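ZP: hey, is the heme C complex queued? I don't see it on the tracker
AM: it wasn't, my bad. submitting now with these inputs:
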Amino acid sequence: MALKTTLAALVLTSGLTVGAALAQDPASAATTPGGKAVVVRQAHYKELNAAFRGLSEQLKSETPDRAAIGFGAAKMKALAADLPSWFPKGSGPEAGVKTAAKAEIWTDAEGFAAAATKLQAETAKLADVAASGDMDAVKAQVRATTGACKTCHDKYRAA
Ligand code: HEC
């Protein structure tokens, strides 16, 4: 943000072209629909990750905030439901921006869909046990959910 502001100021005051510098900013580098989808997708994954972390942190507390856990689990469930739409055709390695999405996501669409469905099932369960208030069950379900993240990453995400 600060960098952008500075660059904008530079352009305004000196009329310099700063295309080379801007090209390093992933959001401005994404000029194709596929490239834009990558940027949006990565932001969604950051949200998913932040919700999962927040929830897991609460579980370490002696007095976990059940409302926060419920909120995080519901958010994860909603994001998982959306996940398949984050992968339009053209947003793979050919997108022209840096992405860890492997071509197999599209060449093995069935396998990828199964991995997404698995996450949907595990996060739905997570939301259910969070609502039940049984923190041991939540902990067990966090592990199952981590497994669903990992299964997909191992196969469809470049290291
Ligand atoms: C169905 C497959 C799939 C599942 C399930 C999945 N991921 Fe991912 N994840 C990916 C792919 C593919 C990428 C690479 C995206 C890219 O770079 O375009 C990724 C990228 C990420 C990133 C990096 C985003 C960035 O900043 O570039 C994070 C963090 C992440 N996933 C967290 C998670 C968490 C946490 C879970 C489970 C709660 C999860 N993922 C479940 C496929 C999956």
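AM: back. Residues 5-23 have pLDDT under 50 and may be disordered.
ZP: great, adding it to the tracker
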